[in-house]
Write a structure and sequence with these properties.
This protein folds into 2 domains: 189 residues, 3-Layer(aba) Sandwich (D-Maltodextrin-Binding Protein, domain 2), CATH 3.40.190; 197 residues, 3-Layer(aba) Sandwich (D-Maltodextrin-Binding Protein, domain 2), CATH 3.40.190.10. 41% of the residues lie in helices and 10% in strands. It is built from 17 helices and 9 strands. The strands form 3 sheets. Strands 5, 6, 7 and 8 form a 4-stranded antiparallel sheet that branches. Helix 2 links the parallel strand 1 and strand 2. Helix 1 packs across helix 11 and helix 8 packs antiparallel against helix 9. It is globular. The two termini are 21 Å apart. The N terminus is likely disordered.
Length: 429
């Protein structure tokens, strides 16, 4: 999704800046494996590990930064014109089906790759396969999402900072309304549960990722999940359980280090790329915790990697992907950035999901995310319309934030009108 693309583009380079930089001026003569990416530096640490364990590798890694919003267009234009193309392809969950439809991804189950889909978690092949059913991408990681919270504010306004007690407090979405209204009143309007309606919408939307945006007839069919979300957003706005921050905005990032909100819907990568960079003092004090939200844990985000069908360095590119995303050794490097592999073998060792981070104090946050949350996540679905639908939802959420008189019914009409304009020849219902 566009939001995920933006966050990774901004924060990954900050978090991994001390790792090995992309080889830009290495000695001539080596092959180059080119990656087009919006997430600068994502492979810096694992790249260092790869070359350290593969001293005979005779190639170098080259990143070309492409704006997230332009990525799909650049692929289309490059392939159509016969121009430059990357060797390593990226497919973000929000638009990967559209990328797969370009027909530029190699079948990784065929020679020379021979990927065995049984080696990864069972849900993965369905979201990394093209329309013909061939696996064309390897998932970067699992992305379990949960409810992060600030312990000090939870104690002050909710009476406890114990994750189990908080989980019991918020068993339904109506509980957010009741407790959120009390927090707003108690703080004289200075504290809300959530930073903004965008956080609430995104959480509710991701909890419905198993509901495909396209039906069997090829129509866009989303009213069944859009209407309930908009109805709840109206209630949430009227009960003042959320602030007015726009998700992914500069102010929204800075808000992690402030004292305005208690609850923060978060994914595993949020720990490394949202919470810790923006609240260093709170993290040093172990002021963060996590619990399973109303509606249960969910998946949020996801990027897969594949190989361009006309690449001249397929062997090198595949060897890197295999080590990085399909080996226990590579999984340890990715874990450092809160990216947990989809390789089944890694979970044979209980130690893989053990450990915590200073920001979460004595809570075993890795175990919580990977054992309590990840095990409950429903399978995701993908369609060529995903990014268009979410863009319209983001727009409507911002409209409801800005205009307190905008009802859920009116917002739904605006949503349908906006989406239909994007795809005038497609039935939207």
């Amino acid at each position: 999704m566009k939001a995920i693309k933006k966050i990774l583009s901004f924060v990954l380079c900050l978090s991994l800046c001390l790792s090995m930089l992309t080889v830009a001026g290495a000695e001539g003569g080596k092959k180059k494996v080119v990656l087009w990416t919006w997430a600068s530096g994502q492979f810096d640490a694992v790249q260092k590990g790869y070359f350290a364990t593969h001293p005979d590798a005779d190639w170098e890694f080259e990143e070309v930064i492409i704006d997230a919003d332009d990525y799909l267009t650049k692929l289309q234009q490059g392939y159509a014109s016969g121009g430059d193309m990357p060797d390593l392809l990226m497919g973000e969950i929000g638009w990967r089906a559209s990328s797969f439809a370009l027909g530029i991804w190699d079948n990784l189950e065929a020679e020379p790759y021979n990927f065995d889909r049984s080696t990864v978690l069972d849900y993965v092949p369905s979201v990394t396969s093209d329309a013909e059913g061939h696996v064309v991408g390897i998932e970067n990681s699992q992305n379990p999402a949960f409810m992060a919270y600030k312990r000090d504010l939870a104690r002050e306004y909710l009476g406890t900072d114990d994750p189990k007690e908080l989980e019991a407090m918020f068993q339904t979405y109506d509980d957010y309304l009741t407790v959120g209204a009390q927090v707003y009143e108690k703080s004289n309007g200075t504290v809300t549960l959530f930073p903004g309606l965008g956080d609430v919408m995104t959480m509710m939307w991701m909890q419905r990722r198993d509901q495909c945006n396209m039906n069997a007839d090829g129509d866009i069919e989303v009213s069944g999940k859009v209407k309930p979300i908009l109805e709840y957003l109206q209630k949430a706005r009227d009960a003042h359980i959320a602030g007015n921050l726009t998700i992914w905005s500069t102010q929204w990032y800075a808000n992690y280090g402030q004292q305005n909100n208690i609850l923060f819907p978060s994914a595993s990568w949020s720990v490394t790329f949202q919470i810790e960079p923006n609240d260093p003092e709170g993290c040093a004090a172990g002021n963060w915790g996590g619990f399973s939200p109303a509606g249960g844990g969910y998946g949020w985000g996801g990027t897969c990697y594949g190989i361009y069908k006309n690449s001249e360095v397929k062997d090198e590119a595949w060897d890197f992907i295999k080590w990085c995303l399909l080996s226990v050794e590579g999984a340890q490097y990715m874990k450092g950035a809160s990216f947990f592999t989809t390789l089944k073998e890694a979970y044979d060792d209980p130690a893989y999901t053990e450990g915590t981070r200073e920001s979460f104090g004595d809570q075993q946050i890795y175990h919580f995310m990977m054992e309590d949350i990840a095990s409950e996540i429903p399978s995701a679905t993908i369609s060529i319309y995903d990014s268009l639908v979410v863009d319209s939802m983001n727009m409507i959420t911002e409209m409801m934030t800005a205009d307190e008189s905008l009802s859920a019914d009116a917002a739904y009409d605006y949503f349908m009108e906006d989406l239909q304009m994007k795809v005038p020849d497609v039935t939207v219902k």
